[in-house]
Design brief:
Blueprint lengths: L1 H19 L29 E3 L5 E5 L3 E5 L6 E2 L9 E6 L5 E6 L4 E6 L5 E6 L3 E7 L2 E6 L1
Antiparallel strand pairs: 1-2, 2-3, 3-4, 5-6, 6-7, 7-8, 9-10
């Protein structure tokens, strides 16, 4: 019984140590992103120019139009399906990173595009926002 008691106490101690051990901190990653020749970041009237997907896999940015870069690939691509919208502002990723919402100045609407480019749909008409947030409860636009 003594041996069983010692083993039980040792097991309980090991379990407590494992549970209480602090989670390792994530490393800070820094990198330079050179835009392709002829591109300049464009806030289109002071809006936000960059959006990073929640998982850090993709970066969307504005430079005369909406571009998308997957961090594991060296090439930047025009955001599929958004080429026809001039005056794009305020890109923001969905919580799952599969869609991007943006404001289209030309027709004053909030739009949603899938990162694969299969669909671009209008969410609603909106006044020009100074920021867009997309959380688990939906999209919030900050008025101009």
């Amino acid at each position: 019984w003594i041996l069983a008691g010692v083993l039980a106490i040792g097991l309980a101690g090991a379990l407590a140590w494992t549970i209480r051990r602090p989670a390792p901190s994530l490393p800070v990653i820094r990198f330079a992103l050179a835009l392709p020749a002829g591109q300049l970041l464009n806030g289109n009237g002071g809006g936000h120019s960059l959006a990073l997907s929640p998982d850090g896999v993709r970066l969307a940015y504005l430079a005369t139009r909406l571009y998308l870069r997957t961090m594991s690939e060296p090439d930047v691509k025009t955001m599929p399906g958004t080429e026809r919208y001039l005056g794009v502002r305020e890109p923001v990723f969905s919580p799952d990173g599969r869609s991007i919402a943006f404001y289209a100045l030309a027709d004053q609407t909030l739009k949603r595009a899938t990162v694969t480019g299969d669909t671009v749909s209008t969410i609603c008409r909106a006044d020009s926002p100074t920021g867009i947030a997309w959380g688990p409860d939906g999209i919030v636009c900050l008025p101009d």
